[in-house]
Amino acid sequence: MKKHFIYTLPGFIFLVVLSSCFHNHNISISISDDEDEYEMDASYRKNQTHKVRAYLNEHLLNKSTVSFKTRSMDEEITLDDNTTFYINAHPGELRIKIDKTENSDESFEKVKQACEELKDILADN
Predict the structure, then answer these.
(1) Using CA atoms, how far apart are residues 73 and 84, in angstroms rounded to an integer?
(2) Which residue, 49, 82, 88, 106, has most beta carbons within 10 Å?
(3) Does residue 40 lie in a domain region?
(4) What is the pLDDT of residues 75-107, one digit of tens each?
(5) Please, what is the Cα angle at 44 between 40 and 46, to 5 degrees?
(6) Are 91 and 46 in contact (CB under 8 A)?
(7) Cβ count near 86 (within 10 Å)
(8) Is 33 domain-assigned?
(9) What is the C-alpha end-to-end distance of the chain, expressed in Å?
(10) What is the pLDDT of residue 1?
(11) Do 118 and 93 touch, CB atoms closer than 8 A?
């Protein structure tokens, strides 16, 4: 019985490690907020990309001529209200950066709020 356990345990551990490699549910979100700049970096499951893009189109890019129509985006965006921010988005990855010195407090708060809500959306799934 003891030999059976000794042979079975390494196999079980191997299967657990192997399965964790194929079921990557890791989400990484970091927010940097200093005197001059606010930045959110997020890595998430690629199957959440549609949800992220739909949220951004509806809540942040709705006052702009820009929207997610392609798979990726890497550009500085200026909304109709002159809010300017940088966005780099690929399936499973997102970076949003806003310069506080070049935007109003209201603009900064709008982008910050969108990032906070996105963080909650990603964390819930």
Answers:
(1) 15
(2) 49
(3) yes
(4) 999 988 899 999 999 999 999 999 999 999 999
(5) 130
(6) yes
(7) 15
(8) yes
(9) 42
(10) 55
(11) no
Is 41 buried (19+), middle (13-18) or exposed (0-12) by CB count in 10 A?
middle
The amino acid at 81: D
39 is in which domain, residue-wise? 25-124
Q: How far apart are CA 71 and CA 69, in angstroms?
A: 7
Q: Which residues contact 44 (CB under 8 A, 6 or more apart)?
A: 27, 28, 29, 52, 92, 93, 94, 122
Q: Is residue 16 part of a domain?
A: no
Q: How many domains does the chain have?
A: 1
Q: Is 83:111 a contact under the CB 8 Å cutoff?
A: yes
Give domain status of residue 6, yes or no. Answer: no
- Phi first, then psi, for residue 70 (nearest 5°) are -115, 175
pLDDT reading at 48 higher than 60: yes
